[in-house]
């Protein structure tokens, strides 16, 4: 019986399979895979072959269960597929060398079990991945709807108060209305940027940097004034152009400025500086947030990352900024100035 051959020669089969797995170029073998994965694969096959109901449906069901178990243990679908293949080669080679009396129908069952295991693992991987993506998309949509509702609710209440005439247009209620409207604008711009990034829809055009920065400055000045923060803007020399998707670049720069305004203390300063070299254009945003804790710089670009008690927003701004800049052929860098603040630099090819 094939399962008896596998059980009797278990040690030799495992050693031979490990050699094949270790020699694999890609995906590269891991210690966990060699130490636990290979014996687990073999034991699962023996268990399936010993099943009294060894029909194709039973084998497929067992293989699907085993494939799911492997994926839950952290193995990638590539590892599962290649390791099953290595195991099949090892068993076939050893049986041929030992001239083992294994019937053809048993080998057929064995190969069918491997095929079903691979197919089930791939199918399960795809299904669980789709479920995870759907869940993440639902969570993002729910968070966005919550943020939009909060901002819209505050704007409507502020507007209703202003309509009564009991509060002045220059007071705190009007300021709340302004903040709420700007918040709505940022959320919508971020959502549009995500959609365009995910759909790979880019509208590349030649953009004058000075014209572009002057447009950004109008809205940024209003936000800076609302937060009692000074904004200084330095333009590049005339004639400096880039070839970019204007909306994505604007979203990236606005996100950096919003982040800078949010974390700069009242009375502090945020700087927007544009400069150029023969082949590059640099857009720099400097804030006075006080600097970052050690090792925290890269975390800021993670989706849904928030870094202080002010939890307004989805924590997507810097993540979207990086993706937007990279989508238009640029790079974004962060330099921490301990005790002072952060310096974000967008680097783009110059036309």
Topology of this structure?
Layout: H1 2-8, H2 10-22, H3 31-50, H4 56-72, H5 77-97, H6 104-164, H7 172-199, E1 204-208, H8 209-226, E2 230-234, E3 241-245, H9 246-263, E4 269-276, E5 280-286, H10 317-327, E6 331-337, E7 341-349
Helix pairs in contact: 1-3, 2-3, 2-5, 3-4, 3-5, 4-6, 5-6, 6-7, 7-9, 7-10, 8-9, 9-10
Summarize it.
With 351 residues, the protein is of the alpha+beta class.
Structural write-up:
- The chain is of the alpha+beta class.
- The chain has two domains: 2-133, Histidine kinase N-terminal domain (Globin-like, Orthogonal Bundle); 205-349, Heat Shock Protein 90 (2-Layer Sandwich), CATH 3.30.565.10.
- The protein contains ten helices and seven strands.
- The chain has helices spanning 2-8, 10-22, 31-50, 56-72, 77-97, 104-164, 172-199, 209-226, 246-263, 317-327; strands at residues 204-208, 230-234, 241-245, 269-276, 280-286, 331-337, 341-349.
- A five-stranded mixed β-sheet has the order 2-4-5-7-6. A two-stranded antiparallel ribbon has the order 1-3.
- Helix 2 (10-22) packs across helix 5 (77-97) and helix 9 runs antiparallel to helix 10.
- The termini are far apart.
- The relative contact order is 0.08.
- Mean pLDDT is 76; it is low at 303-315.
């Amino acid at each position: 019986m094939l399962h008896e051959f596998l059980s009797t020669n278990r040690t030799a089969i495992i050693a031979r399979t490990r050699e094949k797995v270790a020699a694999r170029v890609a995906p590269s073998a891991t210690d966990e895979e060699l130490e636990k994965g290979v014996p687990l694969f073999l034991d699962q096959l023996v268990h399936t072959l010993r099943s009294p109901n060894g029909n194709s449906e039973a084998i497929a069901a067992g293989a699907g269960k085993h494939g799911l178990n492997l994926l839950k243990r952290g193995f990638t679908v590539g590892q599962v597929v290649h390791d099953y293949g290595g195991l099949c080669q090892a068993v076939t080679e050893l049986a041929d060398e030992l001239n083992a009396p294994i019937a053809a129908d048993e080998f057929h069952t064995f190969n069918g079990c491997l095929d079903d295991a691979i197919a089930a693992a791939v199918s399960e991987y795809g299904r669980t991945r789709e479920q995870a993506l759907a869940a993440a998309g639902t969570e993002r949509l729910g968070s966005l709807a919550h943020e939009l509702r909060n901002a819209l609710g505050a704007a409507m209440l502020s507007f209703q108060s202003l309509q009564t005439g009991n509060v002045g247009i220059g007071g705190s209620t009007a300021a709340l209305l302004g903040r709420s409207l700007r918040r709505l604008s940022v959320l919508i711009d971020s959502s549009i940027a995500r959609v365009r990034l995910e759909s790979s829809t880019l509208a590349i055009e030649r953009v004058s940097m000075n014209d572009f920065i002057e447009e950004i400055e109008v809205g940024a000045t209003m936000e800076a004034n609302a937060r009692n923060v000074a904004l200084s803007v330095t333009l590049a020399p005339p004639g400096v152009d880039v070839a970019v998707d204007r909306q994505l670049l604007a979203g990236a720069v606005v996100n950096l400025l919003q982040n800078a305004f949010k974390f700069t203390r009242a009375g502090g300063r945020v700087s927007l500086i544009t400069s150029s070299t023969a082949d590059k254009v640099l857009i720099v945003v400097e804030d006075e947030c006080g600097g970052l804790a050690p090792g925290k710089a890269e975390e800021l670009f993670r989706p849904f990352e928030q870094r202080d008690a002010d939890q307004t927003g989805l924590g997507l701004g810097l993540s979207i900024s990086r993706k937007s800049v990279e989508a238009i052929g640029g790079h974004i860098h962060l330099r921490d100035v301990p005790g002072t603040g952060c310096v974000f630099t967008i680097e783009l090819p110059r036309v």
